[in-house]
């Protein structure tokens, strides 16, 4: 059975209805938001609006209060659903870094006596927005350069276009494709709080009028639900009302919450601000862009390509044709001879120091050094003849040392150590 994109999605999102609805990883918090709306709305309809049906001269005027409350609650819930269940503007991630952005550094590093060019990848690049340069950053997770006003959400693990913030109350990121619905949600919730608060206060006034000489305290005791709703709406109004005012300011100045908090201290011009009226038109009157992702599309297996490898040397004709592997043999022999010379120098220095300290009349150091040098030359020739067959067939450019060379050098070192003991005696 063919798999779909949402089943292999690398972000932290949750999908339902076969990938038709997408939520954030904290979608469970949406249940709390629903309870905070539905429970007080139900109390209002049952204990307040229902009792006001016949409190007006026109018989149907009281029903209008109840109907308006129900319709407004449904509207808020629909807007909440549209905010939290749609793609906020996720930019599809790449399977490989953009190869066209790779470049070779002009400076080369000297590794092992060979010049190696280093492969560089720019972390930032500039793009033009309204005639002004704007820096965009490379995202290591999504392997792409983020478009302007885009940011990577650490909660959803996606790059979001025109990222505003991640709202835990709706369980979703707020970005280009759902910011309009988010603002409508918080502003509608603000109006609903004002409506419930006002009607509850009006019901308290009606109860006071019905009781001859009734006081506010008696009316509140008669309808405690109205008092609870007034307190609840007063507290909620500080949150949703404050959010509405703040986001209205952001819309008029064409900012996002992320930009306002991050670049507030920076004294720089806002390249996206096109005037208050145009900014309002951009948010409320433009068509919502289609999603960049088709979560229900069938997955096509893609071969993972490795990043371009940096060659440390130019290929030689002999390497391309599978030619003579002798350069590798020569390298091994040179390294073997260097090891022999190092061991000889160390043994000679120990012998000379021992002769000076004891004052013995051993053979002159020059004669001993010459003997050891002749012996090492003879052994080097033997190593050269023995190693050819073991190193044959290897390509040049490797610094691996043949086991025969290492073993021969160890044998020579041990014999030189024995010779030094004989001299001491």
UniProtKB/TrEMBL annotation:
Domain Palmitoyltransferase DHHC as annotated: residue spans: 137-263
Assigned EC number: 2.3.1.225
Transmembrane segments: 30-50, 62-83, 181-204, 224-252
Cell compartment(s), UniProt: Endomembrane system
Catalytic reaction annotation: L-cysteinyl-[protein] + hexadecanoyl-CoA = S-hexadecanoyl-L-cysteinyl-[protein] + CoA
Any one GO cellular component localisation term in the record: Golgi apparatus
Regions of compositional bias (Basic and acidic residues) in chain numbering: 414-425
GO molecular-function term, one example from the UniProt record: protein-cysteine S-palmitoyltransferase activity
GO-annotated biological processes: protein targeting to membrane
PROSITE patterns, alphabetized: DHHC
Top-level class of the enzyme under EC nomenclature: transferase
InterPro entries: Palmitoyltrfase_DHHC, PFA4/ZDH16/20/ERF2-like
Membrane topology value: Multi-pass membrane protein
Region (Disordered): 300-335, 387-425
Similarity field: Belongs to the DHHC palmitoyltransferase family.
Entry text on domains: The DHHC domain is required for palmitoyltransferase activity.
UniProt protein name: S-acyltransferase
Organism, as annotated: Acacia crassicarpa
């Amino acid at each position: 059975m063919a798999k779909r994109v949402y089943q292999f999605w690398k972000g932290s999102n949750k999908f339902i209805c076969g990938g038709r609805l997408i939520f954030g990883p904290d979608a469970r918090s949406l249940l709390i938001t629903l309870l905070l709306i539905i429970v007080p709305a139900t109390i209002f309809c049952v204990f307040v609006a229902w009792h006001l049906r016949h409190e007006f001269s026109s018989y149907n005027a009281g029903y209008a209060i109840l109907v308006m409350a129900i319709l407004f609650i449904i509207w808020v819930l629909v807007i909440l659903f549209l905010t939290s269940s749609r793609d906020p503007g996720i930019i599809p991630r790449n399977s490989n870094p953009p190869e066209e952005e790779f470049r070779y550094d002009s400076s080369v590093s000297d590794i092992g006596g060979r010049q190696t060019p280093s492969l560089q990848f720019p972390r930032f690049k500039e793009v033009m927005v309204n005639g002004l340069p704007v820096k965009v950053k490379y995202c290591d997770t999504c392997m792409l350069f983020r478009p302007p006003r885009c940011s990577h959400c650490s909660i959803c693990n996606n790059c979001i276009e025109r990222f505003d913030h991640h709202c835990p109350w709706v369980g979703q990121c707020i970005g280009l494709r759902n910011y309009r619905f988010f603002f409508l949600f918080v502003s509608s919730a603000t109006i609903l709080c004002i409506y419930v608060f006002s009607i509850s206060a009006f019901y308290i006034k009606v109860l006071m009028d019905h009781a001859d000489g009734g006081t506010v305290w008696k009316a509140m005791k008669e309808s405690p639900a109205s008092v609870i709703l007034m307190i609840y709406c007063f507290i909620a109004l500080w949150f949703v009302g404050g959010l509405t005012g703040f986001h209205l300011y952001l819309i008029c100045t064409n900012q996002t919450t992320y930009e306002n908090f991050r670049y507030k201290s920076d004294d720089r011009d806002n390249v996206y601000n096109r005037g208050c009226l145009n900014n309002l038109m951009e948010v409320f009157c433009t068509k919502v862009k289609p999603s960049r992702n088709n979560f229900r599309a069938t997955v096509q297996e893609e071969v993972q390509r490795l990043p371009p490898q940096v060659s440390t040397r130019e290929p030689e004709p002999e390497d391309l044709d599978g030619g003579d592997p002798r350069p590798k043999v020569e390298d091994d022999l040179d390294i073997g001879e260097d090891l022999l010379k190092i061991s000889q120098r160390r043994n000679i220095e120990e012998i000379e120091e021992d002769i000076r300290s004891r004052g013995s009349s051993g053979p002159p150091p020059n004669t001993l050094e010459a003997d050891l040098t002749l012996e090492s030359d003879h052994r080097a020739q033997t190593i050269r003849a023995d190693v050819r067959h073991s190193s044959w067939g290897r390509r040049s450019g490797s610094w691996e040392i043949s086991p025969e060379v290492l073993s021969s050098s160890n044998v020579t070192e041990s014999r030189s150590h024995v010779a030094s003991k004989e001299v001491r005696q």
